[in-house]
Amino acid sequence: MAHIHLEDGSFSLFWVLAWWIVALCLIGVALFFLRSKFKPEPKMITIAAFVTAAAFAIFQVQIPIAGGVHVNLTPLIAILTGPVIGTLVVLIVNILTAAIGHGGWGLVGANVLVNFSEVLVAWLVFKGMKKITEDLFSRAGVATFAGLFAGNLVMITVIIVSGIQGVNQTTAQILTGLSLIAAINMGVAVIEAFLTGLIVAYIGRIRPDILGGNRK
Amino acid sequence: MSIVEERKGLIIFGVILIVVLIAALAAYQMTGHMGIEDRFTTAVGLPSGEEEGGETFFGFSAEGDPVLSVIVLGILIVGSYAAYRHFRI
């Protein structure tokens, strides 16, 4: 997964506000769609609540691989709730995460954008892969890889554009360092891809209606 | 339908998995073993603070304040249960 693991003060106030404003615009668009075009079915509220709890819980656990990594289930959020509700879910997860001292408050806006890109790309790939295969495991797995790759790209872009206060590294050095982090994050995406694939395949077997099919 | 056609999704998944694992292992070789916060601060050039070596469970550890984590998670679980009772799935 991608998440900007920096403390408050790493970004200048200008960029903290800029990313927050962009994130709030996205939230505004999501709320607009929810109120007008994509009114959620009642069961979707329950699913959103469950994925929020699951994503928050798993996000706080550091997995002992390569020194410590995270899984955050954003592709699963995307597949189960879609990009509109998914945007609100990642906002809540990021706010709660900052509230318990994991990451800075000022970076919530930027992290919402990172996670939103994961949600959007994973959802698009999951839907798009239907033309290639009906197999839910591989569709969810590939969607997870694609979503997390997009998240890493956005994470790197946000940091490079914002710059880090008080460091002497050149942009090329920061880019190199972040690219290595992204590569390691993608290694963790293997775990997340299997996890998401298995969960989605299981849901597809017992409750296909949750994934847009017909209820058994 | 040929087996390749039938397993197209899994083949794509497998190819991506292999490429990703190779890239991740190469990156791990270059950076060495370090915690996620350390990896981040090193990458951007910030002074690397000592990561707290808090309680671990078979190597798994919790980020942030564990007590607050449990409280927030408890609230989320109660909220999820209430949503389930009210809206069902």
How many helices of chain A does DSSP assign? 6
Distance between the termini of chain A: 33 Å
Biggest pleated-sheet summary of chain A: none
**Overall average residue pLDDT of chain B:** 84
Output the radius of gyration of chain A.
17 Å
Largest interface (CB < 8 Å): A-B, 67 and 55 residues
What report would you give on this structure?
The complex is a heterodimer of chains A (216) and B (89). Chain A has 216 residues and is mostly helical. Chain A is globular. Chain A has 6 helices and 1 strand; from the N terminus they run ααβαααα. The mean pLDDT of chain B is 84. At the A-B interface, helix 2, strand 1, helix 3, helix 5 and helix 6 of A face helix 2, helix 3, strand 1 and helix 4 of B. Strand 1 (61-62) of chain A pairs antiparallel with strand 1 of chain B.
Which terms summarize this structure?
heterodimer; A: 216 residues; mainly alpha; 6 helices; 70% helix; globular; B: 89 residues
Describe how the helices and strands are arranged.
The complex is a heterodimer of chains A (216) and B (89).
Chain A: H1 13-35, H2 42-59, E1 61-62, H3 74-99, H4 108-128, H5 136-162, H6 171-206
Helix pairs in contact in A: 1-3, 1-4, 2-3, 3-4, 3-5, 4-5, 5-6
Chain B: H1 3-6, H2 8-31, H3 36-44, E1 61-62, H4 66-87
